[in-house]
Model the fold of this input.
Amino acid sequence: MIRGKKIGFMPSGSYTKMSVEEVCESIKRIGYDAVEWPQSFASPRNHSLTDLEHLVKTTYSFDLEISEVVVQQDLVLNDEVQRRDRIDFIKQCLEAYSSLGIETINLFTGPVPWGSRPLIIGSGITEGKAWDMVFEAFDELVPVAERTNVNIAVENVWGMICNDFFSLKFLIDHYRSTRLGVNYDPSHDILAGHTDIGWIVRQLGVNHIKHVHLKDAVGLNVAGKFLFPLPGEGKVDWKSFAQVFDEIGYQGVMSVEFESFDYVSRILGGDWEKAAQLAFNNYKILFGQ
Done:
């Protein structure tokens, strides 16, 4: 823990070539309290129920929590067959993870703004059509989440229809479900120009924040004009960030989402364990421990 806060890490990169046991041993040794498992380890389409049970049992055997599973699927796209498949996949995840006692999944809305031919709101698709697609999806997903008692933590992401606090709150308020909440990541609100993170966190409140990402940001909300730099190099005021979560009484996990990809490649030699250690050390300083 760092200053009384449970800290997790999302294993990616070289971690995905390791066994579940090796990942857990590494993350625990560094000092983390939880793992945020990505689909490379936890997809119910690529892993049997036995595999997933092993994932859960192994995580707990290292005295680590599973803070959430990342299930992010683009829900705004013109290919209706693909869109239908992604909705069905999320529902499959909700059912599978519920049976395993996993409490929270991470979603975003789309359209995904990266890739070679991204669908851009305002040119490739209208804003209204994008919202229609999102609501059609969540009309199905929210009742499943309520029935299975699994939280859906939605993350607002640059370039998507839910890209900042205000657009995400519009989605949350539309359903007013105790199972639909927020994966709060300050980096995307920074890119959207919203620097008063404390105010945003207070507006969301502890009941709506189901999970938290630790990620810094600097630049503009435009592809190619921003960075997710090393923790402490961006515009997030981490001291105030830590204080406001104390203020609202958040008891959940804060999970490091490390996306300084060039740094890992050029400086750390592609070693994501070094990235996990670096981030942990930085947050100990940033949170004032």
